[in-house]
Amino acid sequence: KSCQKPVDKYIEYDPVIILINAILCKAQAYRHILFNTKINIHGKLCIFCLLCEAYLRWLQLQDSSQNTDPDDLIRYAKEWDFYKMFGIASLEQTSFLLGIFITLWWMRPEMLKTKSDFVLLLKALLLSSYGKLLLIPAVIWEHDYTPLCLVFIKVFVLISNSQAIRVTLNLNRMLPWLAIIFGLILENGVVWLFQKMGWDV
Q1: What DSSP string describes 35-78?
Q2: How far apart are CA 104 and CA 13, in angstroms?
Q3: Neighbouring C-alpha atoms within 13 Å toward the C-beta of 103
Q4: Dihedrals φ, ψ of 41, to 5°?
Q5: How far is CA 80 from the centre of its chain?
Q6: pLDDT for 148-192, tens place per residue?
Q7: The model's pTM
Q8: How far apart (Å, rounded) are the C-alpha atoms in residues 71 and 65?
């Protein structure tokens, strides 16, 4: 009221500019998307990202590209492998998010007092995982640098998650990264458990 200017400058910006600034991980762009827009695609985005991850893992299975005879019964087993990869990706994502919530609740319990605080943070984390959509072009344009591209995609998603936590809970940079590290430890624990059980992850 005192300066007679909008608090959120992105209200006046074109959606393409907002998207570019979100890709550049600018905190104010994240704040605008999370608090001043009515985006309600976090659930669909999460499912789509999990499908992309499951498809990538399914392609990386040793036997997924061998026999392509449509009459072969192995084809149906391969479909089950895809569903198994989707289930594993879902469990890993859940354990990652659970690790983040446990860390934040343990370090700053006053930040996550109500159910709406948890829901807002969950939405922010799911929306900030949009970088996983880059898995599609990485798989389509497969080349010698694909493993390096996948590492960059993972790092980009983690940076986006960090910004989402920071903006949602109004924290400094250190605590979101601590939560993400603990989430990664829990996620890798689940991967290790699956490998111990003899599943391809």
Answers
A1: HSS----HHHHHHHHHHHHHHHHHHHSTTTTS---TT-THHHHH
A2: 33
A3: 20
A4: -110, 10
A5: 24
A6: 888 899 999 999 999 999 998 888 889 999 999 999 999 998 888
A7: 0.80
A8: 15
